Amino acid sequence: EKGGYEHFMIKEIYEQPKALKDTMTSRIMADNDDIILDKIKITKEDLEKINRIYVIACGTAYHAGVVGKYVIEKLARIPVEVDFASEFRYRNPIIDSNTLMIVLSQSGETADTLAALRLGKENGARVIAITNVVGSSVAREASDVLYTWAGPEIAVASTKAYTTQLVAMYMIALHFGRLNGNVTLEQYREIRDEMLKLPEKAQAILEQKETIQKFAYAHHTNKDMFYLGRGLDFAVALEGALKIKEISYVHAEAYAAGELKHGTIALIEKGIPVIALATQDELFEKTISNIKEVVSRGAHVIAFAFEGNDDIAKVSDVAVYLPKTLPILAPVLSVIPLQLLAYYTAVERGCDVDKPRNLAKSVTVE
Ligand code: BG6
């Protein structure tokens, strides 16, 4: 049941600190340098043979895969391609026994994802499934499984499944990076220690909900929105834009911030809400200049950065500060206000938040 919340979606958004914690419990531990992913049996020797990883999923799970690509490539230095299951399976992909596939599916029953998994296995790939449902089809058919412990997700728009999928991706990337020597023990400890603090930092963000609520109420009648970011922030922008489209039927476009001027900057008109993410240190200055480009065209900008990066307040209408963590972990925190923004916008627009039109929680047809 909804436990006092108005909708399942907001309940599930608030369950994220616990879901994150549960997904890490007994896998990464403060006093232990081993990563224990017991249903992933890949050895150092197995990993040496892998020359390509495909991350395959649909919808929100696909967006977790986009983050996964950045993270696996960064930490394990293995090339990763991300694809929609419904594209991958029909494009005669190059798969052999040196291929590893990671399929992501909250329900574990999505028809296209399951078909992609089968295609991979038929062609000799090893397949890891990341899923939230014990004993689901993808869990049964994959070679290796990593469960997210998000608990049941009822709202059609995925929230806690996404953030726990991110954590699953970090753990796999770290595990591979440790196995193949790309991540030193010192680096591992630094990332692990920061990961273990994510639940409390997620909680701190939830406590800033009023700022997001205010922005949502001020802009809920707009028909278009833009979500901008670079690198991992772009990956989160994709998910933020999807959330608002799914449940409030506002058209939203996620753009790699540096690409805007090569494309649709003409659509940035006076009064358009722009959600700008600037959590990546290396890209911070570049993103700030992209924010200035939209501000000069009259956009209303809400910008997200880590505490201490006060420069965003100078270039935006509303600045939201996230508790400091490693840039690589930022997506787990920065997506939360975007989920809230989608939620409050949908509520204000009178939408059926938990059951958006034309969408199903799990699509078992192709
Ligand atoms: C869609 C849902 O049909 O399937 C999305 O509406 C979801 O919310 C997508 O992200 C993928 O689902 P799953 O269960 O494979 O993660």
UniProtKB/TrEMBL annotation:
Which keywords has UniProt assigned to this entry? Aminotransferase, Cytoplasm, Glutamine amidotransferase, Repeat, Transferase
Judging by the UniProt lineage, the source's domain of life is Bacteria
Active site per database record: K361 (for fru-6p isomerization activity)
Which EC numbers characterise this protein's activity in its record? 2.6.1.16
Primary residence: cytoplasm
Q: Can the keyword Transferase be found in this entry's annotation?
A: yes
Q: Reply yes or no: does the keyword Ligase apply.
A: no
**Domain SIS, first and last residues per copy:** 43-182, 211-356
Compartments (UniProt record) = Cytoplasm
Q: Name one GO cellular component term.
A: cytosol
Q: Name one GO molecular function term.
A: carbohydrate derivative binding
Into which EC class is this enzyme placed?
transferase
Give the catalytic activity: D-fructose 6-phosphate + L-glutamine = D-glucosamine 6-phosphate + L-glutamate
What are its GO biological-process terms? carbohydrate metabolic process; fructose 6-phosphate metabolic process; protein N-linked glycosylation; UDP-N-acetylglucosamine metabolic process
Oligomer status and interactors: Homodimer.
Please describe what this protein does: Catalyzes the first step in hexosamine metabolism, converting fructose-6P into glucosamine-6P using glutamine as a nitrogen source.
Q: What name is this protein filed under?
A: Glutamine--fructose-6-phosphate aminotransferase [isomerizing]
Q: Which organism is it from?
A: Caloramator mitchellensis
Lineage runs:
Bacteria, Bacillati, Bacillota, Clostridia, Eubacteriales
Gene name tied to this protein: glmS
Q: Which residues of the full protein are shown?
A: 244 to 609 of 609
